[in-house]
Design goal:
It is a single chain. By secondary structure, the protein is an alpha+beta fold. The chain has a single domain, classed as Sandwich (Jelly Rolls). It is built from eleven helices and twelve strands. This is Fe2OG dioxygenase domain-containing protein.
């Protein structure tokens, strides 16, 4: 990584500590421009819009049939969907969420032992991107690498308390990765490809996974800020275990309006990332999303990011490139190259993907 990626450009302030201090107005560095502030909840609550629901228990052994069509429809219409009957035990989902809730309940001094840096992001963090003077998001997080084995976060990055955190998170990760592999087969089949095509293109068994536990404290002025700014995810798939009591995730519809997602009990929220948009030659698009915060309640969620192997160049699948639909992307790019943009700049809508349609991200940021 470049020298600017070695340390944070300013002292890191924990948002949870700010919230617990009882302040009545948020610091200026968290105040978003008016165009980026959340709209009143009533605007989307009355629209009746909601992301699709895919029941993975309905397909039997027919991975290329009914289920593939359901996934295809969800990807074409939204880029987001909820999955039910997905095979991950509800008790494991609850245990993982509660373990990380336990970490964020610890005294600040204990959590500070795991403070992260932009070199790897592993550990306890409170900002994304290394831009000095950036407008920050109202949230803290903890990030770890779960796979492949060669890249897993070493023991020093795992919190010692709660003691169950590592064990339950690794089991949770293994089960959600199986779900991602199944969704990859469905995505391949939905585009008329061999069901192993997507997995192979992204690195096969060496695809990676990272876990980010997100903590959004109460905010005295939730109309002025965001828990996480609008962005699309840089990887293949994201599987989110949302808070089961407090809504916060918003998805941007094609008409530009934001819809607040109502999580279903024991469901996962899945979205396609930028690498799917590239490999599918934009037949499936990654979608901007963001997180709003709450004046009354804190919120916690777990996001598992399923990513390509870092050194595999990703480009549109040749089978999906035709004279009528030429390749939309500038050149093949590895995920290691691609995510440098995000790590430098933080969440910036779909800027990293749009740059790839014109000139290379690397060239654009040298």
């Amino acid at each position: 990584m470049a020298d600017c990626m070695q340390e944070w450009p300013e002292p890191v302030v924990r948002v949870q500590a700010l919230a617990d201090s009882g302040l009545e107005a948020i610091p200026r560095c968290y105040v978003k421009p008016p165009c980026d502030r959340p709209a009143p909840e009533a605007d989307d609550a009355s629209s009746g819009a909601s992301i699709p629901v895919v029941d993975l228990g309905n397909g039997g052994d027919d991975e290329g049939g009914q289920l593939a069509e359901a996934v295809a429809a969800a990807c074409r219409g939204w880029g987001f969907f909820q999955v039910v009957n997905h095979g991950v035990r509800p008790e494991l989902m609850r245990a993982a969420r509660e373990a990380w809730h336990g970490f964020f309940r610890l005294p600040l001094q204990e959590k500070q032992k795991y403070a992260n840096s932009p070199r790897t992001y592993e550990g306890y963090g409170s900002r994304l991107g290394v831009e000095k003077g950036a407008i920050l998001d109202w949230g803290d997080y903890y990030f770890l690498v779960l796979s492949p084995d060669a890249a897993k976060s070493p023991a020093k990055y795992w919190p010692a308390n709660p003691g169950i955190c590592k064990e339950v998170s690794e089991e949770y990760g293994r089960e959600v990765i199986k779900l991602c592999e199944r969704l990859m087969r469905l995505l391949s089949a939905s585009l008329g490809l061999d069901e192993t095509r997507f997995q192979e293109a992204f690195g096969g068994a060496d695809c990676g996974a990272g876990l980010r536990a997100n903590y959004y404290p109460r905010c005295p002025q939730p109309d002025l800020t965001l828990g996480l700014s609008a962005h699309s995810d840089p990887g293949i798939l994201t599987v989110l275990l949302a808070d089961d009591h407090v809504r916060g995730l918003q998805v941007r519809r094609r008409d530009g309006h934001w819809v607040t997602v109502q999580p279903l009990p024991d469901a996962f929220i899945v979205n396609v990332g930028d690498q799917i948009e590239i490999l599918s030659n934009s037949m499936y698009k990654s979608v901007e999303h963001r997180v709003i915060v709450n004046a009354e309640e804190e919120r916690i969620s777990l996001a598992l990011f399923y990513n390509p192997r870092g050194d595999v160049p990703v480009a549109p699948a040749p089978e999906l490139v035709t004279p009528e639909r030429p390749s939309l992307y500038y050149r093949p790019m590895t995920f290691d190259e691609y995510r440098v943009y995000v790590r430098k700049n933080g969440p910036k809508g779909k800027a990293q993907l749009e740059a790839l349609k014109g000139q290379s991200i690397t060239q654009n940021n040298e």
